[in-house]
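Cross-posted from the bioinformatics board.
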Amino acid sequence: MFESLSERLEGIFTRLRGRGRLDEADVDEALREIRVALLEADVNFQVVRGLITRIRERTVGAELSKSLSPSQQVIKAVHEELIGVLGGEPLRVTYASKPPTVVLLAGLQGAGKTTAAAKLGRWFRQQGRNPLLVGADLQRPAAVVQLRVLGSQAGVPVFSETTDPVAVSVAGKAEAERTGRDVLIIDTAGRLTVDHELMGEVRRISESTSPHYTFLVIDAMIGQESVTTAEAFHAALALDGVILTKLDGDARGGAALSVKEVVGRPVAFASTGEKLDDFDTFHPDRMASRILGMGDVLTLIEKAEQTYDEEVAAKAAAALQEGRFTLEDFLEQMQQIKKMGPLQSIVGMLPGIPKEIKNAKIDERELTRVEAIIHSMTPEERRDPSLINGSRRLRIANGSGSTTSEVNLLLKQFREMQRMMQAMGLSAKISNKKAKKAKRGRVTPAGLGPQRRR
Amino acid sequence: MEVVVVIVVVAVALAFVVLTAVAVRSRRGVDLEPPAPGVAVDSRDRAVADQVQADVARQVEEAFQTALPEDATSPVEVAPGEVVEAQPVPDLRVLPEPEAPAPPEAPPRPSFRQRMGRARSLLSGYVGSVLSRTSIDEEAFDEIEEALIRADVGVATAQTLLDSLRQRVKAESLGTPEELVAALKAQLKEDLSEGDHALHLEAGATNVWLFVGVNGVGKTTSIGKVALRHVSEGQQVVMAAADTFRAAAAEQLELWARRVGADLVRGAEGGDPGSVVFDAVQRAASRGADLVLADTAGRLHTKVNLMEELKKVRRVAEREPGRVTEVLLVLDATTGQNGLTQAREFTGAVGVTGVVLTKLDGTAKGGIVLAIQHDLGLPVKLVGVGEAAEDLVDFDPDEFVEALFD
């Protein structure tokens, strides 16, 4: 989308060259495209209207920049505007001086509250806390069973009883105090905002447990309803933030923007996969890139920092720059990357990867095959693939359950890659300079880098 | 610098792996029967593989050229406030080409209309402002567009609908806002009436209805409600708890089975969903039951492995004596534009025959079904209008549209 957006804008602005200012007609044409892009990303209609008005104000009559093309300039304005809405500090959890710190989760049916509760429990545990989960969804059949199963996977105890949701929550809090649990996470039933009875119930839960944090759990795929939903829950509960779930799909998640704009609460946590660990605090400003359809380099870097083994990375970096990157290094790197999560999502975060690759369905099992082939080589062969002759090739193929042609293909691709890496090893050295010069005509996940600089 | 280098390495290795995967896969598409080890590869296969590889390699290389500076702009290196990167922008225009017909959502039966009260008044509020105009002008069309977009119809579909509405205004020389709204309704009804809205049961066969969709849309609940309908009509129903992934999904379905008096076949948590469906078909056949309702785990359509698993479940369900007569995509009415992608991907994988639109009793409009019907020809078959078991009703385009504009 971003690609196509920027391309269209280029088209609109080509005739502008040589003029000094953006005039209203030019900008309006561009804004129509931007409006469509935002609506397609499920940003709420009214929010889009407000954004477009503000973007018009800051672009009409603006002097044309010398270093940016007009379309870049407009996109930069759009991006900055989105970041302006989304930005601000990510939520930092502070703990109650008198435990437990109570966290209340609420939302529509099927948003992912129960799963989010368990993931949040695990997250608190990883922060060195002792959470207790409370199953207050007594409505959906087996919701409490689900929470118990997930809780045991997350290593977090679950409290529930078959009284009523308010009583369970209150009893849960007492239980946490009694057993010295310092964080209490209350999972509530899904409810419609028009259901006054159930909205009243969740409000009573809130009043009787005085939560320190109230999160609205919202599905990244939600459409125009995001605003109605957030407003209603905010009115009933005074939200502190949003937990955005199912972000591992391909929805653009315009809801994050809509909710922030309308109720002023950011996405605090995001859930990005089916595993309990696929959950973390969220940097709302990065959502701007996704809504506009751009890669998310910062998340990639952060993931790499978390999961990458420093030494392995340093070794690989050296090997890379000296042009002696072997299959062994490659295998190691591949394993590191696998730790970072599904390849598809990593590729999704890389900027500038052609659509053909980004949209290609990546089958993780292919990685296993490649691994198997490399594992079937001797260390010598991995260091020097030229050793591999016909009989070795057959042995490798047999050992890995593949075919000699697959082994050949892999070796060929590896040679190709070595060539590319050498080129990159060189350019990495000069990347610093290059980065500042490389404006080659396109804007950016821009604003992101600078923003995050400390 | 360290971080930068690592990222570069990541990018390289990554792209390489991608390229390997892509090349190998497309190559596999060519030689379905891999040659025995050691046997020379068919040169045609090799040519294809080489071609793919060369293409991908070129793309990756190009990507590096542009991606690299980007990588280098990791937090460490960028001068504040500067726009630094190069973004490759290969091609493609993706912005919507106006297409499909129209808008909002809503269900049928009278009970439904009552429940729809709030949503209806919201939407008729927009259309109401059209009605208060004195003539048909551009702003009237803008207001209709707004109403459609607010219902999650999507920009492209809304524009297509407006285009045909404009033509109609001209052709039929409509002059008043009332006529305009009437024309819109007629258009919507027409669009929504297309396709086959019936649920199919083949007499004498062991019918399997497969319920698919992303997480949290209401598959399990919908099955419970469908089961109730059929059991109360005197049919024997077997439920297959083939969602073996979500914790307690089988328990949830079991409670429904007990409530409605259906048979349930379940497997171990984390077990093979295909074998659950297989067992359910066998059980149904041996008891002479007409209908197997198969629940499946919610899955995002972007997960290749899970979509493959779903294809397998379908294949297993087709095994004699099973006959898959419906594959129902369950869609939450709050779903936005991603719903169209979901419908496309699930249809591509398992041949969806219709949509079950759930959670229409809130303020959500579910307008995305219009885009789905238009782009993919997938009709809505059932709508969920409330929590009670009898609140899953047949879709009725007339009532649906009337409910929006009453």
